[in-house]
Each structure stands twice: as structure tokens, then as C-alpha cells.
């Protein structure tokens, strides 16, 4: 019974992720996306695109990573991927993760901490795929939202292409080619310059 109480306390605590606003607006909306919505969206995308990973992946592990990867933002907030992350931001995220996972029973705490660290280091096939998928929604939000975040933060097309190519192509060449086609259209339409 104490395990259930710990898990319920954790579930209440992670509700805070719903109030962390991201830097992009969902397609068709004027409001900014929150990090909990993002976690759901990337988890669903991973499930839908799993057959397009270049290497063998364990989709259950990938989805777990995607569901927990942004929980550190409860403490640190969201940062735009194109900005340099500071050591302070990483420290805040790490502290936030450890504080949150301490709510969980020891076995879950160890598993989630390990998965979070694996995502952060991005070396395994599962982590590479999760990190690739994590990049796609913000691109789609901008492509279908007149480049709102790119323009607001003065992000040049060269940076958008280079950062995302590296991250996405590392896990799925097919996904990168599809995304690149959409980015090229955005450039042609003046949405990305």
C-alpha cells in the first residue's frame, strides 16, 4: 500500500508539468503548448513512427523516456533547443528529476533515473530515436504556424536544418528526409529564412 501512496504523490507532483509553457504553439492554436502535452504528443509519434527507426528499438523503453524526459522542466522551465543550455539549467533539471523521482518506490526511482539519464546522453538506439522524435513536433508547429517561434527568436534556417538533421537523421534517415522536405517547403514559402 505504501508503494501506491508514493506513486499517487508522484502523480500529483508531476501535474506541475501542465503549467510549464513551451516555445511553440500547437497547430491551429494561438496559445503556447505545455510540456505535458508535448510529452503525450511525442510518445504517440514514437508509437506511430517506430517502424521507421534505422536500428532496432524497444518502443516501450522509448515511450517511457519520452514520458519522463521533460519532467526536469518543472524546476528549470523550458528552454528553446537553439539556445545554448547553461550548466545551471542542466543542474536545475537534474535536481528537479532527482527530487521528483524520490517520490517513487526505490525500484521505480532507479528505473526512471536510468531512463532519464539514457535519454540525456543520447547514445543508445532507444535514446537516439526518442531524441529524434522529440524534435519533430516543434518543427511541425513552426511549419504550420508561419514560423512563429523561429521568427520570434531569430532562428536562421541554417541552424534549424543543421541541429535537426543531426538529431533526426541519427535515428531515422527516412524521417529526416520527410521532415527536410517540409522544411524546404517552409523556406520556399518564406516561413523559414
Task: Describe this structure in a few short sentences.
By secondary structure, this protein is mainly α.
| H/I helix tally | 10
Computed over alpha carbons, the radius of gyration is 17 Å
The main sheet comes to: none
For the record, give the distance between the C-alpha atoms at the N and C termini, rounded to a whole number: 56 Å
Query: What is the count of β-strands?
Result: 0
Write the CATH architecture name: Orthogonal Bundle
Helical content class: 55-70%
Q: Please identify the structural class as seen in this structure.
A: mainly alpha
**What is the CATH C level class, in words?**
Mainly Alpha
Tally of separate domains: 1
User: What value does the average pLDDT take?
Assistant: 95
CATH topology: Hypothetical protein af1432
Low-confidence stretches: none
Overall shape: it is: globular
Strand content: under 5%
Order of helices and strands: HHHHHHHHHH
What order do the helices and strands come in, and which of them pair?
Elements: H1 2-14, H2 35-49, H3 59-68, H4 73-76, H5 87-101, H6 106-121, H7 125-143, H8 148-152, H9 157-169, H10 173-188
Would you give an account of this structure?
Helix 7 packs parallel to helix 10. By secondary structure, this protein is an all-alpha fold. The protein starts with a helix and ends in a 5-residue tail after the last helix. It is 65% helix and 0% strand.
Using brief descriptors, characterize the structure shown.
Hypothetical protein af1432; about 190 residues; about 65% helix; mainly alpha
